[in-house]
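# nightly structure sweep
# worker-07 picked up a monomer target from the shared queue
# config: single-sequence mode, recycle default, output format = structure tokens
# input follows
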Amino acid sequence: MLSLLRTSKAPAQNPATAGFCVLAWRGALIVQLVSFLQLNRQLFNNNVPTHIGVPPTMFEKSKKPLLRTLVAALGFSATLSAVAADPLKVGFVYIGPIGDHGWTYQHEQGRQAVIKELGDKVETSYVENVPEGADAERVIRNMAKGGYDLIFTTSFGYMNPTLKVAKQFPKLTFEHATGYKQDKNLGTYLSRSYEGRYVGGFLAAKMTKTKKVGYVASFPIPEVIRDINAIQLALDKYNPGTEIKVVWVNSWFDPGKESDAANALIDQGVDVVFQHTDSPAPIQTAERRGVYSVGYASDMAHFGPKAVLTSIVNDWGPHYVKSTQAVIDGNWKSEDFWGGLAEDTIRLPISDLVPVDVKAEAEQIIADIKSGAFHPFTGPIKDQSGVEKIPAGIAATNAELASMNYYVENVKAELPK
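# output follows
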């Protein structure tokens, strides 16, 4: 069952009606002011008519108070116009519960940042636990029909439903997380999580004793595949011969399946567990089984203080605030935003479980990625069959990363058909 729509404040009055009334009154006041000024010009220029029958001094005494009254009234009307304007209605569609401690939790923190930064300029709402597919399309369309000005949809499987609804509501603004389809009123945004995976792969390469690391994977989409590849590239460089084993759970949030997958990996000799799922279950399993882990989406160290080497933490707040303010200002434009370490969209708190020298090397890799001196997907890179995908000395483009559908060389796992 879908949860009820949650909102940050009560709805405001109809802006069309309120705005029309204010503008009509303001227009009438302007007409009065113009008429007065025309009369003032007639009375106080060098050709003041004498047949009016009123001494000029009387007008001299009365014109300033009247001017002040009209000007004050006009200013008051402008104030009323600002007060009458409705806040921007912003909707968020979530794949999981806001208490998942992972992906959805971090998007909810981003929504809270919008409320904190923009205050009464916005009214925000969310729907959680929305399955990908028909349910997502229905929820997104209901938001569009409900007067929302800006709608964020936060899971890869929302891509086509978001595009479909965006085409049906061209005056509204939509943004979709982790997808690659844009339109005039639809932008996309995602984190360069592969940067964090590469650093995590470096840590795993340094900390593993079995030369086996594991990955609890959700769905075989480009985002997940390129993150697995990033880990393997780091393993190849810093501990050649180390392999990554993958178990697919076909879910973003299913603590039971996630825990079972982590146990299956550990039973195969894995001593560092990664995850591309949303609950802390793999971390907790690693903690119980006495192996290392790398958290995802949020800082999961408190779920496994003896296990977590680092977490790839997403910070969506700055992007949500920027996009929302752009819609308010009327200068929003569709874009394909990729936020990584350089943009502080992701960060990597490294645990004290990591030796000081290894931590220093990890921080240098982070600094090199931030500065642009290093890109994890710099060629030569080959796929499992030995076909060159990225030439030597060339960094993968965003388009190549967004469509990555192959494992790199040395990944021993098979992609689901």
